[in-house]
Amino acid sequence: MALADVLKSEAFANSPRLQDFLTYIVEEQIAGRGHAIKGKTIATDVYQRDLDEAGNAQNLVRVEARRLRRLLDEYYADEGRAVPLRIQIETGGYRPRFKTVEPAYTMRSAAVLPPEPRRKVGSLTTFAIFVSLGLTCLAVGFGIATFRNDARKPEPVTRTETARLAALRERSMSSVQAANLAQQARGLFFPLFDLQRQTITLESFRHVVALDPGLPAGYAGSAQVLALQSFLSDDATEASELLSEALAMAERATDLGPSDAWSQAAHGWTLAVAGDMAGALRRARIAVELAPEDGHTLDLVGITALLANDPSLMADVSDPDRPRTGSGRFAANNIWGTSHLMMGNYPEVVKAFSNAAERGLPVSAPSLMLLATAQRMSGDDMAAEQAILEMTTTWPGFPADEVSNRFFAKDPVTLKRVMDTLSAYSWNE
After folding, report:
1. pLDDT over threshold 90, residue 143
2. Has residue 387 been placed in a domain?
3. Is 407 inside any structural domain?
4. Contact, 263 vs 277, CB < 8 A?
5. How many domains in the chain?
6. CB 27 within 8 A of CB 143
């Protein structure tokens, strides 16, 4: 992603504190807390300064912000001149902006199609907004630390990947840039309900299509995001239009890359949203066979299996002992815990969701809801009540019934257990 490109650059190699500064503000923006980015929060959270100490901590932040803007300008003028998705920090504030630009070296031929117009997603409802807050909120300290580690340690390039990029280079530099951007953008898909993250992701995938209309990744990525937006929309007409476009993108992806695991997985997810569960699971299993260790593919298969009510497949692709490459660490734990709730293995659910923050994993309203259900089914009423209390205190107004009904639509047994748990502890009173 855009942040990883900057952090691993030579321009920032000798500026670890500015790496922390940039990581912090980007993470806050993506998590939907950009409006709260202030000099005083940066001073305390990044520089560990007491605002009352001599020397005025906020002056330090202003000086560091000027250095950060200068380094970003230098990076995009030289080493990062071909990077299409860029981070900008306007003078007078600290909130980052994301801007897509045409790579300076790219010579686009007349055969390259322009990007399709972006569809404005209307009301994703209070449901989506609250789930966005729920599923994307990490305990601040652990979440930022994990994000930094992932960004600073890019996945090693394999011999296969090197050969693939070399082959694309023979076609055009645009193809190489498109492939790189697609790999970066797909890591933004999870957490699912981060609306700002999905907007950035879809824009990136559309740019991939514009750069190389023959690359399946741009269509696969667009399909997975459009299907998600359709799934969340409460407007029937809008949902239908989004799903129609998602299906067209998914068909194009698998037509171009029938043996591409990501394309098959994205097609499967799109079919699940469309209600074709048999077709969805068929595509999902093909994807696993094609790329049994690819984290993103496995996570797409996991959420497809969730909608299709196949907890065994969910558990298989999210097994903590399964080798995984690339993205997929956070979603896998949630998929694993949910699969065992559906199978009635409550001790494993408690193990997955308990002390998640301490292990650097997501803490969210849905995970607390599922944890409480497992605890109640295990007879630990006190712990279950505490989990529901924590959920309602941290995420007041979270529409737990809507979330449950959407994701367990094909699993009435689990749905009833979750709803009974919510009712038992008066979650909505």
Report:
1. no
2. no
3. no
4. no
5. 1
6. yes
